[in-house]
Amino acid sequence: MVGHDRIGARRRRSLHVHEPLAGTMDLHAQRLNGLMPGGRGVWVPIDHGASDWPVAGLEHPLELVRLLRDGGADAIVAQKGLISHVLHHDPQIGVGLVAHLSVSTRHGGPDAGEKVSVGDVAEAIARGATGVSAQVNIGTPGEGRMIERLGAVTRDAFTNDVPTLGMVYARGEHLNVMDGDASGGQAHGVRLAFELGCAVAKAAWTGDEASFRTVVDAAPIPVLVAGGPRTDDDEALLSMVHRAMRCGAAGVCMGRQIFAHPHPDRIVRAIASIVHHEANVVEAMQHLEG
Q: Which domain covers residue 29, as residue numbers?
């Protein structure tokens, strides 16, 4: 099995494994390196319970985070309350924590697509996060206000040396894709995240390598590919991850495909083998055998 022991051992070590580099890195770079060792990352968002409930797989967050850590996740993206809960019970959890500062719920009616800010960078640091995240849905009513909120987050993150993940999705009734944009606006989302000061961007898979390359090439920051709605086809998922990495992606930022999986630790280990150890799909599938 490819990298199974190495991945598990790496995540069981403390995040302070990167301290020897402190003399040659600024604080922002140290934090980003902790979340994306070697410039690559396996990030798992588990903030979905704020927007919807019940959500299968999120019933026991502390146990889930430990499983994800042991499987090889580099970072967990979560709402601030969940971060505090995890660190209260396990202060040395040994996995990166990124505070997601945006939220809306399924009950918002016409405003459901507009993400509001529910925290700030200083609070995220105080709660134990080493990175922050914010969401913009371009093409959705309220887009301008979401852009303004993301700009406020990156301003505060800049002054506090905190990396920001930009979740900028091309969706909504007002989406106006330019002629010739095979990415359907996803490349613009990555570019907007970069232009507003994000250190990392999340982007949906566009369906083929040619169009996804335009997404990755849209900005000089790492791009993490999203997973989309939960499916039961592990091989197809791993194939998509492999293809995205071949296009230049820096890793994944996947929620339901991982936390709703029957074996979250195994699917994370399989994904991490591709992201960090350049395994092929056949090799990665071996990690699902237990």
A: 4-289
